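User: Good morning. I'm curious how NQM would be positioned relative to this chain. Could you predict the structure with it bound?
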Amino acid sequence: MPTQVRCLLMRGGTSKGAYFLADDLPADPGTRDELLLRIMGSPDERQIDGLGGAHPLTSKVAVVSPSSHPDADVDYLFLQVVVDRPEVTDCQNCGNILAGVGPFAVERGLVPAGEERTRVRIRMVNSGDLATATFRTPGRRVDYTGDAEISGVPGTAAPVVIEFPPGAGELLPTGKVRDVVDGVRVTCVDNGMPTVLIAATDLLVTGYETPKDLEEDVALADRLQGIRLAAGRLMGLGDVSDTTVPKLTLLAPPREGGAVSTRTFIPVRCHTSIGVFGAASVAAGLRIDGGVGAELAELPPDSDRVRIEHPTGFLDIESTLGTTPQGLPTARRTAVVRTARKIFDGTVFPRPAAPPQGGPR
Ligand code: NQM
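Assistant: Good morning! Here's the predicted structure, ligand included:
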């Protein structure tokens, strides 16, 4: 088992993660995950002895390798390292961490940088889907500086343009535009992230509360967990009591000129902004006639761009839908601009395998 591992710490969108070459980690998934727990400092709600930032949004890992897929340059496996349980899961994808994958691939020499800009084709191993990331590489070096601003991140940085080709799967995992779960009307959507859309007022909140206020609402947390367990089964995800999907998004009419206001549970903590695939799923959901979101949203009449309001600002996402031969909605194109920044490149020293027993508490 390695006692030191090459690692690059990167902010990807509104998340932060440790990026590794697959070759720098053990090949066996169980051995790899055990090592990652020690690297990130889990399980411990402060992650005090590792790289993790004590929140799901800062306890993320990207494992990147050359791809054998004909339409991809690199494979990206996303792993969520649970903060307070000894668990690493590949059951979800992460579009924010995805923003750092292209720059990381260039940093590590997996993809040659273009003279001015570089386009990296990425296979997302968690879902099997493809994405492309385009970013600036003047003089064949990644330039992280620029004037792109994304809500939830102070300052500006270079844009990373991410595009997703038409979705392979259907958008409605329950086969219905609306379901009633645990007595609440929901629309279950999956445009990269299994997401349950709920009108905030149906849960007796406004949907404009702060994440902290929502997290402290114990009755709401109970209600959300009941809905999530039932919706998970309906969406074909089985027993989701220990998984990070589906996410739940509370919707309310927009207040800042966007299409809709959101508060997203991922699934216990409330997101301080919104995930990329989470936003893609919300944006698609708003366009589905008869869905829970359609009646609350104010969509721009002549634009593919949907502005999703969230607790720290907004996320603009381009989203168009098509129809399957069976008449069900499907994602045609999704695109988003994120930023990413290399924070640290070096060697991480994992906590020893057996933590010392006893001692002062
Ligand atoms: O939905 C948080 C994040 C995410 C996921 C989560 C994400 C996405 O913001 O694509 O980016 O929903 O667990 O990093």
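The CA atoms of residues 232 and 238 lie 6 Å apart. Helices lie at 29-40, 95-98, 101-107, 211-215, 218-234, 276-286.
Let me know if you'd like a different ligand tried.
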